[in-house]
């Protein structure tokens, strides 16, 4: 039972990073309808910016996080404007291919610059585990959960009470009607993309303090984020939070009781099963158009 | 008929150029070119002709390669049995994947192929007892074709046969059916076409060719390791099809030749091969969504 609690806690730590990555993806995929495979590279780049901030520039952990967010917002802004908007105008299905290209490009550029060795971002937090009841967690792991919780809360507030949040929710319900009501769809699009990139970068930065970061760090997590988004329903914020935490916990339990080899495969088998039974996703509606 | 003539001419040119002008290195590249030509052309059956995005082609490549390697290891079967068996097993997996896959729509379909690709990779790398894990399995060279140049001729002949088969396939009634589905599936169903069966057949055939290419690759590099069959490999096959031009017979052939040979020829590019692939994918989708073959035929139409 004590072991079970520990597995659960580890799962929540990993799950919080899944939540952050999946939230950005669900905004981009569910609302803008862009399938962005380079989303995992935003996660990876966030980790490297955190390494640069804490190890190379020597600024503290909090300024580094600000740096991560600023860099990722700028990058997301640039990529949406320079690559995705021009392609989507011609043929939306090509966006998938272009995002794949972007993913390979970013991964290998980083590989050339930083090399294949994993790197650690310094959190500056005291060493040693903290005991809570029967479970032990390092301060970095606690910080991941805490910061993820703060970020998710902030995002929910933004979505609920601000202009951009209102436009986003309108667009997720019906993009055409939102446009008729005078919402600047293009502006909302680029802001959404930037927010999504920043969320993924933040997750990467937080995880880089515990699990290190390497050039291919994002390739598996983006697939898992897609799994979460499909299970949660496209564009569903609450769904992504629940499904993200659930995937982290399930993976942790599988690792603990069934072995490490099965950890990564669980989510994919599950999503294939779900899509077999409900081809349009858990909450989608099947349509047929000529 | 003209296309078949052109295939033979191209194959003869490749054979002459690589044996006369190059040593082992050039023949090596020529073998890889042939294998990727089969891969890109077979992916185009589903991607270009049927309009289904598949990012799982390297998984079928891997299934073919591992079928040959495991059969060779456990039963000592030869190349001539492993090649058809590799194709059958890969085709069977393609068919089985198709059953759930073809119910999904649009983006979900692409995501499912990637989920499948990831599952196959994880099984290949984690099921150590069966697949050899990260170390993979060694494969003995084909008896009678142990030298590099003799193996090259074998691969070349098989590639020519595959290309001719794909050409006949896309020109047949099945090819017409695939195009009808790509252009408007609902309409195709309305006129009484069993679109699901047609798509299943296309996916199984395409996967079988990829499995065959996998067997050739396994015997060429004399072994299999899971890292050759990642989603990255799938993406580079997609890059070849997109660069060359989807739904045109010569498109994927051209794309495969260019993307395999160019990085090898320009020595600066070998180190930056994947950066080059990524850049090509972005630039082509931005500026020539129909690929080089599409650009060419538009230019000729003028």
From TrEMBL, chain A:
It holds the Pfam family BPD_transp_2. It is found in: Cell membrane. GO terms for molecular function: transmembrane transporter activity. GO terms for biological process: amino acid transport. InterPro entries: ABC_transp_permease, BCAA_transport_permease. The chain crosses the membrane at residues 12-35, 65-83, 95-115, 142-163, 188-211, 265-285. One of its GO terms (cellular component) is plasma membrane. Its main location: membrane. It is a multi-pass membrane protein. Keywords: Amino-acid transport, Cell membrane, Membrane, Transmembrane, Transmembrane helix, Transport. Belongs to the binding-protein-dependent transport system permease family. LivHM subfamily. This is Amino acid/amide ABC transporter membrane protein 1 (HAAT family).
From TrEMBL, chain B:
GO terms for cellular component: plasma membrane. This is Amino acid/amide ABC transporter membrane protein 2 (HAAT family). GO terms for molecular function: branched-chain amino acid transmembrane transporter activity. It comes from Rhizobium loti (Mesorhizobium loti). InterPro entries: ABC_transp_permease, LivM-like. PANTHER family: HIGH-AFFINITY BRANCHED-CHAIN AMINO ACID TRANSPORT PROTEIN BRAE, HIGH-AFFINITY BRANCHED-CHAIN AMINO ACID TRANSPORT SYSTEM PERMEASE. The chain crosses the membrane at residues 25-45, 52-71, 83-102, 109-128, 148-169, 197-217, 229-245, 252-269, 275-293. It is found in: Cell membrane. Its main location: membrane. It is a multi-pass membrane protein. Keywords: Cell membrane, Membrane, Transmembrane, Transmembrane helix. It holds the Pfam family BPD_transp_2.
């Amino acid at each position: 039972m004590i072991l079970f609690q520990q597995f659960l806690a580890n799962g929540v730590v990993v799950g919080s990073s899944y939540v952050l990555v999946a939230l950005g993806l669900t905004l981009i995929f569910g609302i803008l309808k862009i399938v962005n495979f380079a989303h995992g590279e935003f996660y990876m780049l966030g980790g490297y910016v955190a390494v640069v901030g804490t190890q190379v520039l020597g600024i503290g952990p909090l300024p580094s996080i600000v740096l991560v967010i600023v860099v990722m917002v700028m990058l997301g802004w640039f990529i949406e404007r320079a690559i995705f908007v021009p392609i989507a105008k011609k043929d939306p299905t090509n966006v998938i291919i272009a995002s794949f290209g972007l993913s390979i490009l970013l991964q290998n550029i980083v590989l050339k610059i930083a090399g294949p060795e994993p790197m650690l971002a310094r959190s500056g937090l005291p060493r040693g585990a903290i005991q809570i009841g029967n479970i032990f967690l390092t301060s970095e792991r606690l910080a991941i959960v805490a910061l993820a919780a703060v970020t998710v809360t902030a995002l929910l507030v933004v979505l609920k009470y601000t202009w951009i949040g209102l436009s986003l929710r309108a667009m997720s319900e019906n993009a055409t009607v939102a446009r008729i009501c005078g919402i600047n769809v293009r502006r909302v699009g680029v802001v959404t993309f930037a927010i999504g990139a920043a969320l993924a970068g933040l997750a990467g930065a937080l995880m880089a303090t515990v699990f290190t970061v390497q050039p291919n760090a994002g390739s598996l997590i983006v697939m898992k984020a897609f799994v979460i988004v499909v299970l949660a329903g496209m564009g569903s914020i609450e769904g992504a939070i629940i499904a993200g935490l659930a995937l982290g916990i399930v993976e942790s339990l599988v690792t603990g009781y069934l072995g490490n080899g099965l950890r990564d495969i669980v989510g994919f088998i599950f999503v294939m099963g779900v899509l077999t039974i409900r081809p349009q996703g858990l909450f989608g509606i099947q349509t047929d158009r000529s | 008929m003209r296309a078949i003539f052109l295939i033979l001419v191209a194959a003869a040119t490749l054979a002459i150029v690589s044996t006369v002008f190059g040593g082992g290195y050039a023949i090596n590249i020529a073998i890889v070119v042939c294998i990727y030509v089969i891969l890109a052309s077979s992916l185009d059956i589903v991607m270009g002709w049927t309009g289904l995005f598949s990012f799982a082609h390297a998984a079928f490549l891997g299934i073919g390669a591992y079928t040959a390697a495991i059969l060779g290891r456990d039963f000592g079967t030869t190349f001539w049995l492993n090649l058809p068996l590799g194709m059958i097993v890969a085709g069977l997996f393609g068919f089985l994947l198709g059953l759930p896959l073809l119910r999904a729509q649009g983006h979900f379909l692409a995501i499912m192929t990637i989920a499948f690709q990831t599952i196959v990779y994880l099984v290949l790398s984690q099921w150590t007892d069966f697949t050899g894990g990260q170390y993979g399995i060694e494969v003995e060279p084909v008896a009678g074709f142990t030298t590099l140049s003799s193996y090259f001729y074998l691969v070349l002949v098989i590639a020519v046969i595959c290309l001719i088969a794909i050409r006949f396939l896309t020109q047949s009634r099945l090819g017409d059916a695939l195009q009808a589905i790509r252009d408007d599936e609902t309409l195709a169903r309305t006129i009484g076409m069993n679109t699901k069966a047609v798509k299943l057949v296309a996916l199984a055939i395409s996967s079988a060719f990829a499995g065959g290419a996998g067997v050739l690759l396994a015997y060429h590099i004399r072994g299999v390791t899971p890292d050759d069959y990642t989603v990255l490999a799938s993406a580079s096959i997609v890059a070849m099809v997109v660069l060359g031009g989807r739904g045109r017979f010569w498109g994927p052939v051209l794309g495969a030749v260019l993307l395999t040979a160019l990085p090898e020829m320009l020595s600066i590019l070998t180190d930056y091969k994947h950066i080059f692939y990524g850049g090509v994918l972005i630039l082509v989708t931005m500026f020539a969504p129909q690929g080089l073959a599409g650009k060419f035929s538009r230019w000729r139409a003028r």
